[in-house]
Design a protein that fits this description.
108 residues, alpha+beta, three-stranded antiparallel beta sheet, 3 helices, 5 strands, 31% strand
Amino acid sequence: MVDHDVQVLLLGVDHGNNTLLHYAEHLAEWPGKRESRFGSAMLVEGRREWVWRQDLVHDDRDFVEVGEAFAATGDERLALPLRCCSGRALVAFATQWFSARRHGPGWS
C-alpha cells in the first residue's frame, strides 16, 4: 500500500482506528521495542493447524496523538467527518514520530 502511495480515507473516525499506523510501528525503532510469540489456527496444505510466529507487540495508545501531529503538518485533508491523506506520507511521518517519542516507562 505504501509503495503505491494509497490514499487513506477515514470516515467518521480518527487515526486511533488507522491500522496502517501498525506498519509504521514495524519500521520505527525505540528503546524497549519488543516482539512476542503469537499463535493462530491456519489452513496448511488443506489441514487446520495451530501456527506460531513472532510479531511486534503492537500498541495503539499514541495513534490519535501521532495523527493529530500529522494533521498539523497540513498533509491531511479534513472535512469532518472525513479525513484523507497519503499513506506514504503518513507512514514516513509516523515512523519518525514513533522513533523519537516512544521511550521511557511504558514503552518497554
